[in-house]
Design brief:
Elements lengths: L1 E5 L8 H11 L3 E6 L28 H11 L2 E7 L6 H14 L3 E3 L5 H8 L3 H22 L2 E5 L9 H8 L7 E6 H6 L5 H8 L3 E6 L1 E10 L5 E8 L8 H10 L5 E4 L8 H15 L5
Parallel strand pairs: 1-2, 1-10, 2-3, 4-5, 5-6, 6-7, 7-10
Antiparallel strand pairs: 8-9
Helix pairs in contact: 1-2, 3-5, 6-8
Length: 290
């Protein structure tokens, strides 16, 4: 396995700082976040104003800069963290081309959020699923033309929160050009299935693994019926409800030897200490030869 960091989780660093720091710590690769997220006041955070993010607007003109930044640090690409909806064919085309030009091999295209789309369009899950399948078929064809792979992430609130749902969406498409990102932390929130079973179910579509952790906490509030209200929050790798060690063991049992990308959104430790500790923890769980 090789270890990388998704820059959604490194909001305080510029791209060059992220690449240089991660390389110095011993990470194998980086997964660049590409999305328009600048803030008016210049503040930074995981999801807005993230300084490690390459802005989507004009991204085709910044391929050379991304390549120089990555190459200068001696890092590989574990993939590209794109945010273009699969229904946005022009945006997906742009991201596939950028991925191809970088030699980054694979890029995430985002799936629709079920409740949000139902409110917006009135579509049932089945209707939304069928429309998304058609969009993904188109993306797979373009990915094949460009020699890259489009990735579907297991993500809570979307139409693919679980491995079973994702397999249903990608089944029959060419796994050389369509794959699934299995995400440990997201599955704490929605979509958990036995990990080994999920990996075996996905088979050749298992293309990438994201690792973060989460936990459910009691808000102290109750509903009108007297039941407790719980909410999820991100947690350090060791402290969430999912076992990272059991997850990595299941990946190995399934024969997975690809990228494991960390996207730790906890804030218990300062960023540099957090990324260094995460790498040390991963290495303690995975033999060097694995």
């Amino acid at each position: 396995m090789k270890f990388s960091v998704f820059t959604a989780s490194t909001p305080d660093w510029t791209p060059s700082q992220a690449a240089d720091t991660l390389a110095e710590q011993g990470w194998d690769g980086i997964e660049w976040r590409i999305v328009d997220d600048r803030t008016e006041d210049g503040s930074s955070g995981f999801w807005a104003g993230n300084r490690s993010t390459w802005q989507y607007s004009g991204i085709a003109d910044r391929v050379g800069e991304i390549a120089r930044t990555t190459d200068a640090a001696g890092l590989e690409y574990s993939g590209i963290g794109g945010y273009q909806p699969v229904s946005d064919h022009e945006g997906v085309e742009t991201m596939l081309r950028v991925t191809s030009e970088l030699g980054a091999r694979q890029v995430r295209v985002t799936m629709p959020w079920y409740r949000r789309e139902r409110e917006r369009t009135g579509e049932t899950y089945g209707q939304l699923f069928d429309r998304t399948r058609a969009d993904l078929e188109w993306a797979a064809e373009r990915a094949a033309d460009l020699g890259v792979k489009a990735l579907v992430e297991l993500h809570h609130m979307t139409i693919t929160p679980s491995a079973s749902a994702a397999l249903r969406l990608v089944d029959g498409l060419d796994p050389e050009h369509v794959g699934v990102i299995h995400d440990l932390g997201n599955l704490v929130i929605e979509g958990h299935e036995d990990h080994l079973a999920a990996f075996e179910l996905l088979g050749p579509y298992l293309a990438h693994a994201h690792v973060k952790n989460a936990r459910w906490v009691d808000t102290g509030e109750t509903r009108a019926d007297g039941s407790r209200v719980w909410q999820h929050e991100w947690a350090p790798l060791r402290d969430g409800q999912a076992s990272v060690s059991e997850y990595l063991d299941a990946l190995r049992q399934a024969g997975y030897d690809g990228w494991v990308t960390i996207e730790d959104f906890s804030t218990d430790l300062p960023l540099e200490a957090r990324t260094a500790d995460n790498l040390a923890y991963l290495r303690s769980l995975v033999p060097v030869s694995a």
